[in-house]
Amino acid sequence: DMGKGLKNSMPGSLGGVGCCDMSLKCRCRWRWDSPARTCVLSLTFIFFIASLLIFGALGMFFAWLSVSPFEKPAMNTLGCREDDEGSWSIGVYRGSNPFALHPIEDEGIQNDGSAAWPVANPVFTCASASDSSHPSNFVADPFLYIQGDALYLFFETKNAITMQGDIGVAKSVDQGATWHHLGIALDEEWHLSYPYVFEYDGQIYMTPEGSEKGDFRLYRALDFPLQWRLEKVLLKKPIVDAFVIHHNEHVWLFGSDFSRFGAKKNGELEIWYADSLFGTWKQHKGNPVHNLDKSLGARNGGRPFVFDGQLYRIGQDCGGTYGHRIRAFRVEVLTKEKYKEIEVPLGIIESKKGRNAWNGLRYHHLDAQQLSSGVWIAVMDGDRVPSGDRTRRFLLGSLAMFCLGVLIILVGVILGVVRCVFPLSRCLGAGKRNDTFSLWTRPHFTSRLHRVFSRLNRTCDALRGKIRLNTCGGSLLLCFLFVLAVVSVCVGVQCFFGGNGAEEAYSVQGQYSQFTMLTMTYEARLWNLKMYIKHYSRCASVREIVVVWNKGQPPNPETDFDSTVPVRIRVEEKNSLNNRFKSDPLIKTRAVFELDDDIMMTCDDVERGFRVWRENRDRLVGFYPRLIDGSPLKYRDEKYARTRKGYNMILTGAAFMDSESAFQKYWSDEAKEGRNLVDKFFNCEDILMNFLLANQSFTRTVEYVHPAWAVDTSKLSSAAISRDTQLHYRIRTNCLLKFSEIFGNLPLQKWEFDSRKDGWDL
């Protein structure tokens, strides 16, 4: 009987059992005759469990170091989601001419309501443009329309629900410092972007990019700025990022048509012309006037402008990633037959903070216009991540996890604990009893698989035989594979849990601001200072770092430091801790972050502290709490405050304060005796500041923020005054007693930990 013979000759085929049949006795053998059905654990099983535990622990440790445990405040519950197109936002620039534009924070514009002293870019984000009906993932392609003292901002907003672009509009009446979102100006069934708004013959028109529809449309404002009507289809071509301008008695249309045969995407530019906006459009004789590499700025990047009688065009450099940066071109010749332009420096100062800056990786659109006052104002979009960043992180993380699995198996093979990798006889011979067709086709397929798997098995055996673990080479190989596995774990954790890698600033009431960092040091601690400046200068909201130099030859800030922000060395005549709180008219921000040069913490912790201070600007907001109580008063460490579940003092070695009010109080006549004691003990300036603030206010004066982690290197330096802890605490206890005699006791009010809803003061 043929079927019977087949049945008896095909072990493992009973009931169609395949590769995953638990009867396969590779390393783990099930005893079905045992009542408890126990599993005899093998070295293979133990090896994989141990690997899972070891690399899982390493991954958790790396996550603790690199991923903030604190939840970020939701900018908007519906919008501002991660998007592969980016996280674009919009900033405002001002200057005397379009080639000398500076970000709004350099203008010193302030907003008391949000404690934005000064207001900083970005001024308009996805949170600004989101509402319940139109949540936004990002805002980009900004265009201005100036109407008297009012500025109207038209922009692309990507709807988080429909995942297509709509045209939004916002209004500002304070020269771009604050914006009020008015709503959606244009919403079609297809994707819209690049809302070029202009005036022609007394009417306001818009030509948004809608290449998905296959044509180029002109809309007219019926009730500006929210009601628009289709006026005419100007071109039946999918024109991308186009603008229309009246120049030399003709109306010119600049745009890109990537559907043209041979067109290079993001590298093609065409010109059309007509006698009027509603006339017959004709192609330029040189079309395409550009068909170049995508990095050379052929694709339009904003509104053209006229300066000193010359016409300028803004183009996109898409090299490396889409919208990498913008370029400026001066139009030398524009006729029906010829077009010539040359590149000129635009003068935009690029941020060196990378992903921590709102426009650190790319900016691809600029609209600069002149106000009636003669000042130029511009809006520019920017992004901190490249195009496709979310997908790239997912693929990289998946690859890292795959590599980790391969490395674990490889180490197991080398150690000899992984032997039965490919169960050939079972897996390749398994199948249904009555599958007659497969009886004839399987040998042709399985024979090849059998040869491949056999070679892999022989390779594993040969590899295990050649590598001697008791030799130096074998040990080095295992160490190398372990290091690769650790790197794979770190890459995977960062890709899946680390977000986009940016330590972003936090907004308050939708606005951003900046602060000045101030530290006090001298020659013996220069190595600390270099590391300090390199790290903290890359934090998003840091505007300047001021170094109070108390003793020794001062360094050169231009050559001695790796900094992305200006570093100013303030040389003092007297070596005094009081210099820390000296009034400094060159400081351009109200917020000052006093931070000792021997403390290292993450930029995210610093940014969280800045947000808390902006919400409580009359308080001392810091990271090191203390509880001062007892009779007589005694100085104790943070552990004591934790056991008592509260604090009433914040050390100014890591604290935000209002430089105007706090510094003024510290150098008042009433504090002179206290400052003399600080000079006498060469200590306690932070305690004096707490006494001064607490005894001149009836409200709360301190606020604690818990850092994810902080490293204090003072114990490693012989120059630190707190290196001898016991002596340091005795001096500070003496200061408490002296200050109590002068100013009275600190308020007995104790502020509890974990009183904030966001959990930042745990």
How many alpha or pi helices?
14
User: What's the number of domains?
Assistant: 3
Q: How is the main sheet built?
A: 7 strands, mixed
Task: Supply the CATH architecture of the largest domain.
Answer: 5 Propeller
Number of extended strands? 34
Low-confidence stretches: 1-40, 436-440
Strand content: 25-35%
Instruction: Calculate the terminal CA-CA distance, rounded to whole Å.
Output: 78 Å
Instruction: Give the % helix.
Output: 25-40%
Which CATH class of the largest domain applies here?
A: Mainly Beta
The CATH topology of the largest domain turns out to be Tachylectin-2, Chain A
> In order across it, which strands form the biggest sheet?
26-25-24-27-32-29-33
Under CATH, the homologous superfamily of the largest domain reads Glycosyl hydrolase domain, family 43
Q: Structural class given helices, strands, pairing?
A: alpha+beta
Family: Belongs to the glycosyltransferase 64 family.
Protein name: Glucosamine inositolphosphorylceramide transferase 1
Organism: Taxus chinensis
Keywords: Disulfide bond, Manganese, Membrane, Metal-binding, Transferase, Transmembrane, Transmembrane helix
Written overview of the protein:
The protein is of the alpha+beta class. It folds into three domains: about 25-65 and about 390-495, no CATH class; about 90-385, 5 Propeller (Tachylectin-2, Chain A); about 515-745, Spore Coat Polysaccharide Biosynthesis Protein SpsA, Chain A (Alpha-Beta Complex), CATH 3.90.550.10. It contains 14 helices and 34 strands. Helix 2 crosses helix 7, helix 4 runs antiparallel to helix 7 (about 470-495) and helix 12 runs antiparallel to helix 14 (about 725-745). The protein is globular. Mean pLDDT is about 90; it is low at about 1-40 and about 435-440. InterPro entries: Exostosin (IPR004263), GINT1_N (IPR056442), Glyco_hydro_beta-prop_sf (IPR023296), GT64_dom (IPR015338), Nucleotide-diphossugar_trans (IPR029044). It is found in: Membrane. It is a multi-pass membrane protein.
